[in-house]
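Sorry to interrupt, but I need a hand with the structure work. Leave the record below and I will have a look:
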Amino acid sequence: MTRILEALGAAAARIGGDTPRLDAEVLLAHHLGCTRGDLLLNPERSIDTQAYELLVDRRTTGEPIAHITGSREFWSLSLKVTPDVLIPRPDTETLVDVALKLCASPPARILDLGTGSGALLLAALSEWPSATGLGVDASPGALAVAQANARTTGLAQRAEFRLGNWGERLTENFDLILSNPPYIADDEPLSDEILTYEPPSALFAGAEGLDDYRRILPQLPGLLNPGGLAVLEIGHTQGPALLAMAAAHGFTASLHPDLAGRDRCVALQLAPLEPAA
């Protein structure tokens, strides 16, 4: 039998990378069915290392922590994650934060385009308890994950999920639209971990990473209620291009940074009509 501190030290040394100790702790807490806090409060506990080492083996091959544990926290919600969906990142929480700041009144109806795991829609619904929402995705596998997450978060009665291609064939209007579309250029270098384990359809969007914005922005005016808000995640260098695209489609737009100070999302509202002369 091996004690916790010894097991964590050995696992971190094997895992390497940017966050070896954190990874080791998350995996051991998952193995023991406890929180990281509980784990560290009782560091002298002995464990059977064989099953834990199997989890560490998976991490040393580059498999993401979220795939090994099957979950990722987003906006304080524990969400199921599979290879069918993009792993929710803390930077994407910026979109929810911006929506909370910019919505003039609580939205009654919310749309999440390219919903994936359902992270954005479910986070928004958790903040606005009177709202209902729709998540759209082109992947049946992703929709199954989103539906499971709606059930486990207790939000299934207010969240609907539908197979679709962005906003095509949607006939209703929404007060708030959220989206984290693919925005990585086809030739942009990515880590082997991302390339191997996350769905390419959720990552790449043409030579400039802008192809899906070109599909989404023309649809937004017909989907937003008067005074409605759309918040889209962007790559940190894409702000000027998105501002120009937004103006071409009649939006007023603003850029908003993530915690690292990099442009993370663009907020869009339809510009008011000029008064008749």
About this structure: The chain is about 35% helix and 20% strand. Residues 2-61 form one domain. The chain has two domains: 2-61, 71-270. The longest strand covers residues 224-233.
